[in-house]
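FIELD: query
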Amino acid sequence: MKEYIIILMLAITVMTSSCIPSVEGINTAISQTQSAWTLVPTQTFFPTYTLYPTSTKYPTYTPFPTYTPFPTYTPIPNTSTPTVTATLSFVAQTQSIGPIWDRSRGSKYTADVIVTDVKWYKGDKYNEPKPGNIYVIVFLQYKNNGPGEVRLIGNSDFQALDANGVLHDYDLVFHTKDCRLELIDLMPGGFFEGCIAFEVPDEGKVEFIYAPYQYEGLQPGRYLSFVVRP
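FIELD: result
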C-alpha cells in the first residue's frame, strides 16, 4: 500500500510539471495579450469652470431735473418810430356825388362820403414806407342814398393824389387791420365806415379821392376830392 501511494504521488508530480508553462511562455502570452488590447487614452477632464464676472448693475436712475418753463414773452416796445399821430387841424368833411348810373344794374344811386379823421404813420416793423414817404390813414363813412344799390364798393374805389399829380392806390398796412374796408354791396339807405391807408410823399399837398368812374379819368362832377394835407 505504501508503495502504491508513492507511485501515485510521482505520477501526479510528473503530470503537474508537464502542464505548468515556463516563465518565458508566460511572458510571451502576456506580451501578446497586451498587444491585442487598445488602451483607452488617459481621460482629459473638462477645463475648470470659470464663472461669469460679477454682474455690474445699471447705475441708479436719476430723473430729469424739474421742468422750468420758458419765461413769459414780453415784447420789446418799438421806440424807433413814432406812433400814429392825428392831424390836429383836420376838420371832418362831407361831400355828395350822383346820381351815378350803374350800367350792370340799370339803376342809379347817389352817395354821401364823410372823411371823419386823418392820421399820419411812419411805419413799424411790419410796414415801412420808402425813404421820403409816409403813410396817411383816412377814416371815412359812406352812405347810399339810393334809389339803386351800390355794387362792389371797396378799397379800389378810393385813391390818394399827391402834389406831383400821382394817384396812389391803397396799402394794406398792419395798423388798419381792424378797420380796413371789405368789398361789399350796399343797399339803398345802407351805411358803412372804415379806414384806408396810402403811401404818399411826406411833404406837399395830398387829396383823398373817391372815383366811382375811375376808369374814365377824373372828370369834373365824376369824382370827389378831400384835401387831407394842404
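FIELD: remark
The chain has a mean pLDDT of 78.
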